[in-house]
Give the backbone structure.
Amino acid sequence: MGITVLIADDQPLMRVALAMSLEAEPDIEVIGQAADGVQATELAGRLNPDVIVMDIRMPKLDGVQATSRLTAGPHPRRVLIITTFDLDEYVVAALRAGASGFLLKDATSAELVQAVRVIAAGDALLSPRVTRRLLDNYARRLPMPARAVASASADITRRELAVLLLVARGLSNAEIAAELYLAESSVKTHVGHLLAKLQRHDRVQLVIYAYETGLVTAGDGEGTARLS
């Protein structure tokens, strides 16, 4: 069975371009298009797409608010945010609201297709370069809940912490495995434990958590552990 996609963008030409890029693939079907966040949430409820490609800035209900609604509840939707600017504070808000990743609007068709496939498969899409620039730029605006840090100190093992710091740098499981001299399956297991312990649904949320709690600090390229 193929991947079903809903496109939400207030620019008709952009919706057409995105749809053409995706529908050129035999395993992807665009089942709906929305011109604003309100339509996006309504169509998502009716059509049940595997992935929602969401513009960050739209009328009536912007991408952040729409994402927050779509990812709430026991069965969160998987949202790929698209944006014109790679330093956009709204993207951080959307990621914190539950988006599974983001992509710049000048990305190639191949990059868009890959992003949709990755997110449909249950993973998250992060560009290390853009993610670090975004989070480093806006990290000071993120709260750092003391209770979350205390909980992490009690529950996260040293190995899991090492994996978390590398996830926060945007590394893939294969790259983390090479960095820590582990099997890729072991890294996947550690990531699964982190998601369960920290009650996050994907890697993007782990990155946000690392910044929220100060486990990784802005401007620190390698990530700074805050646990003893």
The chain is about 50% helix and 10% strand.
